[in-house]
Design goal:
alpha/beta; Arc Repressor Mutant, subunit A; D-Maltodextrin-Binding Protein, domain 2; 2 domains; 10-stranded mixed sheet; two-stranded antiparallel sheet
Length: 299
């Protein structure tokens, strides 16, 4: 199928008629009918059944359509990337992406530090999941992103900012007083307590599961969450022990929970990502330094 065939096929699938497709892509109805017939002739099978002015897709068309949808999604990405390359980033604007865990304590502190010397720079913030951050930066829809764990992507450059670690946040009274007094726990110490599970696809969740396997410890996960702050909230309400990163644990309420070091050490590397081949502006570099300073002071 040629691109014109694909465009007409997609328009008919979206509208259900030749007239609707013609309006959608701004061509005449005879042109739509002609292109559709030519596409079917080349393919060797019908794409639609015609009945009373309506077009019903055949089974072959329904099989093709998911692939056509993915193609149009890729074309949309190309258009967005081209638009971003054309306009570039304004010197007076900073577009920042971060995972949710870094948005509660670290990011506000970084902005406060940044504002001291760059009060006139407009900042746009988005808290996203790691794959969304990677995709947006690859399309140059943001200037910098902050997340956990390294990322391998040809369109991105990365910088190591700090090494956090996983800690244990336990509701008051859930752990033995001797452990609380010691200030640290092992994975084995948690084996008899309810632990809030982290998504197995999450980088911190993967690290926790790997550490459990290496230590030969099986933890009980009666509740599993997708965000570290959800785990912290459950700990605050006495529903389980949260094993989370130090950045999220900075929001813990000491009146409701005990924050203890976790042994063995499970590192949580914190990275800054940038579009590759696009030198960071002065304000981007300044913000990254402020973010790193905030990590040092708060994490």
């Amino acid at each position: 199928m040629r691109l014109r065939h694909i465009e007409v096929f997609n328009a008919v699938m979206l509208t259900g008629s030749v007239s609707g497709a013609a309006r959608l892509i701004n061509v005449t109805q005879p042109a739509v009918s002609r292109i559709l017939q030519h596409a079917e002739l080349q393919l060797g099978f019908a794409l639609f059944q015609r009945s009373k002015g309506r077009l019903t897709p055949t089974s072959e068309a329904l099989t093709l359509y998911p692939h056509i949808e993915r193609l149009f999604a890729q074309l949309d990405e190309v258009q967005r990337l081209a638009a971003n390359l054309k306009t570039g980033g304004s010197a007076g604007e900073l577009r920042i992406l971060t995972v949710l865990a870094l948005s509660y304590e670290i990011l506000p502190h970084a902005i406060k530090l940044f504002r001291v010397k760059h009060a006139d720079v407009a900042i746009t913030l988005q808290a996203l999941h790691s794959p969304q951050i990677v995709s947006a930066l690859a399309l140059q829809e943001a200037d910098a992103g902050f997340l956990f764990s390294p990322v391998a992507h040809s369109a991105l450059a990365q910088e190591h900012l700090a090494d956090g670690r996983m800690v244990c946040v336990a509701p008051k009274g859930m752990l033995a007083s001797r452990l609380v007094k010691r200030g640290s726990v092992t994975l084995a110490d948690l084996s008899k307590s309810p632990v809030v599970g982290l998504d197995a696809l999450d980088p911190v969740g993967r690290s926790l599961n790997q550490a459990c396997r290496e230590a030969g410890v099986g933890l009980e996960f009666p509740i599993t969450v997708q965000t570290y702050h959800s785990a912290l909230a459950l700990a605050h309400h006495g529903l389980g022990i949260a094993v989370i990163d130090t950045c999220t644990a900075a929001s813990a309420d000491p009146a409701r929970v005990d924050v203890l070091e976790l042994e063995p050490l499970i590192p949580v590397p914190i990275k800054a990502l940038f579009p590759a081949g696009k030198p960071g502006s002065v304000v981007v570099r300044a913000f990254v330094r402020c973010f790193q300073q905030a990590l040092t002071q708060r994490a």
